[in-house]
Specification:
heterodimer; A: alpha/beta; four-stranded parallel beta sheet; globular; disordered N terminus; B: alpha/beta; Rossmann fold; six-stranded parallel beta sheet; four-stranded mixed beta sheet; 11% strand; 4Fe4S_Fe-S-bd (chain B)
Chain lengths: 273, 477
């Protein structure tokens, strides 16, 4: 790994003398598929001057049940998440959709719950998507990392429309030396993942991800980044099935310079493992 | 209209395999999305207008009875008639009664989704009254015996080549040598045929984009002018409107008109915006001798006071359809009933019952683009989620074969999610099995019980060890 140094260049109201007390919500997909994203997030947060905790009692944010009509189970999970995370100053999530679940949907889900409604609102207000937190709260604008690749970025729907994150990942990627950034045509379209949607309606999902691949191709990029592992598993899985040379990674891996792991869905090289 | 919404998966399958349809649907993205974007960008107050429109619609829905009664009083005052119809059957019968009183044999029609909802064309035809669609798109699909597949562009699923084929088939007197390769020549061919119909029709039936309580007017917006000929030339004009169409004043109307055209087609205004107020007065040069408004409920009043009420703000601009990746992929007919796209997926279960349309709210990634572009800020993803909750509670219909196992799986997942140790143990087993199967390949091309995923894409392999285990090791030694 190349030595990376990330400076906190924040000044004015964003600057903070005492370290921010941040809890990392790892997400189940990062835990299961790609721990490297969690370590990259920790590294970025620490370099941005945060004290990072990873509560051991965390599991899932409750999205699968919530989006499948099982509101009662989702609410039970939400109450657990609140209990585990509410004592921290901030909750940071390397996923727009899990961050959106907590900050956008928990207050609605628990709106009628006398004991939890207010606590849900408070947690919602201090929960951020990773790049959003790094830029908007920590004021992190310079990164001492480099990557000589043609890169495109997929905005996940929840990141874009629930968390209103669009500029932040681009700001940070703009700080990666040698990186050649290409916007994705039709970039506000869904990739077709949609949680259980992609297994319930595989044909429609396939049409959507096929469109996405065509746009990735048009961008001319050889590395696809996103801030949500769900979308990435979908797009990387399709790219590999189609034999594409385009690689896929979570944006945090690039920003933190943690690129030793093979890209998502890529074979391990011979020397390793 | 007969529904095939309960066969959504089959409908979608056919649509995805239909190359002509796919070619036609390509135009939706090109034509509508960019035009809307430019129109919205060009109007700095668009967001403020959107907020004002939404608030006004909410106010109206809170006192809907009052506004409808005010509208009725104004129509009566001007010599028109209002017919309150509780359902499709009541509306059909009333329309037939009016047509028979007028001795009607031919009815021209402007575009009306309510007409589709109550299946008026088939009904009139079955009673020896000839309905003639006069909107070009509606005319085309009437000749093809199809239903509209889009709120604004009913024939968006038809290619230009298909239109030419249909015209050559149906217009028997058409010279085989005549060039119909240009849209303009198709338009002029349709116009020639329709002119004869306009002047010989006994009754004109139009929809109503809005009803204005202050003036007792029905309002239509069109780009072809066919609606004006339909409502002014025949002896009788019948405007079909659902009860949610009423706005209090002309000022309120302008707010919605400014939002509608921009959201629908990217125009600042439609080419024609026409207000019909009562029958012809003595001093009028033209106009119908009788003016009727059909006010259709058909399940809408039951939506008031429920999470579905927000759907009644809809102004039928179709922006949600145009921006929906599922609609773009499968087209409007796959939804199986009158209303397609996100608004259709949310509204259809309310109007025909969730049991008959259970797939519609599920067939969405909840990507939220519909809500983002909706000029009425309708929380469409929330309403789709509401239907999923209803379905889960009722154990109602079965989207996909695996619905029961999905339910059990969700319950198990929710249990594990609240028991972190068990959760790590259980996910650890799954992770190790999959990682073992993947070996060094980094991905799997077949995963038992996850064919829905692997039929079209590989599954990137999970990590051999989970984040939490690695983290404890690294940070706690």
């Amino acid at each position: 790994m190349s030595e990376t140094a990330i400076k906190n260049t924040a000044s004015g109201p964003l600057a903070s003398e005492t370290p921010r007390d941040v809890a990392l919500f790892v997400t189940c997909l990062v835990d299961f598929f790609r721990p490297n994203v969690g370590f990259a997030a920790i590294k970025l947060l620490e370099r941005a001057g945060c004290r990072v905790s990873v509560p051991a009692a965390q599991t899932c944010c409750g999205q699968p049940g919530y989006n499948s009509g099982d509101a009662a189970s989702a609410a039970a999970i939400a109450r657990r998440v609140i209990e585990v995370f509410e004592k921290y100053d901030y909750v940071v999530v390397p996923s727009g959709s899990c961050a959106g679940m907590i900050s956008h949907h928990y207050p609605k889900l628990l709106g009628e719950d006398k004991r939890y409604a207010e606590r849900a609102r408070k947690l919602a207000a201090k929960t951020f998507e990773l790049t959003q937190f790094l830029v908007d709260i920590c004021g992190l604008t310079t990164l001492d990392v480099s990557l000589d690749r043609k890169v495109t970025f997929h905005d996940s729907c929840s990141s874009l429309r629930e968390m209103r994150v669009k500029a932040q990942p681009r700001t940070l990627l703009g700080q990666v030396a040698d990186l050649n950034f290409r916007e994705l045509p039709d970039g506000e379209s869904c990739c077709g993942f949609g949680g259980t949607f992609c297994v319930k309606y595989p044909e429609i999902s396939d049409r959507m991800v096929t469109e996405k691949l065509a746009n990735i191709e048009k961008s001319g990029a050889d590395l696809l980044l996103a801030g949500d592992l769900g979308c990435l598993l979908n797009m990387a899985g399709k790219l590999k099935r189609e034999g594409s040379k385009v690689e896929s990674r979570h944006i945090a891996e690039v920003l933190a310079g943690l690129l030793e792991e093979p890209a998502i869905g890529e074979a391990a090289s011979r020397e390793e493992r | 209209m007969e529904s095939t919404a309960d066969r959504f998966v089959d409908n979608a399958h056919r649509a995805l395999a239909d190359e002509t349809l796919q070619q036609a649907m390509g135009h939706v993205r090109v034509n509508f999305i960019e035009k809307r974007r430019l129109a919205v960008e060009a109007l700095p107050e668009f967001e403020a207008l959107r907020q004002a429109g939404r608030n006004m619609r909410d106010r109206v829905l809170a006192d809907l009875d009052k506004h409808l009664l005010a509208f009725e009083a104004k129509v009566l005052e001007q010599g028109g008639q209002v017919h309150w119809c509780v359902d499709a059957e009541a509306a059909r019968n009333k329309i037939l009664e009016i047509c028979r009183e007028a001795g009607a044999r031919r009815v021209t029609k402007g575009k009306t989704m309510i007409g589709e909802e109550i299946g008026i064309n088939e009904f009139l035809a079955a009673h020896d009254i000839e309905p003639v669609e006069t909107d070009l798109g509606e005319y085309i699909i009437q000749l093809r015996h199809e239903a509209p597949s889009h709120l604004v562009a009913p024939a968006v699923h038809v290619t230009q080549k298909q239109v030419e084929e249909t015209f050559r088939q149906v217009h028997r007197d058409l010279d085989a040598k005549r060039d119909l390769s240009e849209p303009r020549s198709l338009l002029s061919e349709a116009r020639t045929k329709l002119r004869q119909k306009f002047v010989t029709a006994d009754v004109g039936i139009t929809g109503a984009n809005f009803l204005v309580a202050e003036t007792g007017s029905s309002v239509i917006v069109t780009n072809e002018g066919n609606g004006d000929l339909t409502q002014t030339l025949p002896r009788v004009h019948i405007a079909l409107a659902s009860i949610d169409k009423v706005v209090p004043t002309l000022d309120d109307l302008t707010v919605l008109l400014r939002l509608l055209a921009r959201s629908a087609t990217g125009q600042e205004m439609s080419v024609y915006t026409t207000l019909s107020t009562g029958p012809r007065r003595e001093e009028d040069h033209d106009g119908p001798g009788a003016y009727h408004v059909i006010l259709l409920d058909n399940g809408r009043s039951k939506m008031l006071g429920t999470p579905k009420q927000d759907l009644l703000r809809c102004i039928r601009c179709a922006a949600c359809l145009n921006h929906c990746p599922v609609y773009q992929a499968v087209g409007g007919h796959a939804y199986g009933w009158v209303y397609a796209g996100p608004i259709g997926a949310a509204l259809t279960p309310a109007l025909i019952g969730l049991d008959h349309a259970a797939d519609l709210p599920n067939a969405s990634t909840l990507c939220g683009r519909c809500e983002a572009v909706c000029p009425m800020q309708i929380p469409l993803p929330d309403i789709l989620r509401y239907w999923r909750e209803e379905e889960f509670k009722n154990g109602a219909a079965k989207p996909g074969r695996a619905s029961q196992s999905i339910r059990r799986g969700l319950r198990l997942w929710a249990f594990l999610a609240r028991h972190p140790r068990l959760y790590r143990f259980a996910t650890g087993i799954g992770r190790r099995i999959l990682a073992g199967r993947a070996g060094r390949a980094g991905r799997l091309d077949k995963v038992p019980l996850a064919e829905g995923w692997t039929v079209n894409r590989d599954l990137p392999a999970p990590s051999k060890r989970g984040f939490h285990a690695l983290y404890r090791k690294e940070y706690r030694g």
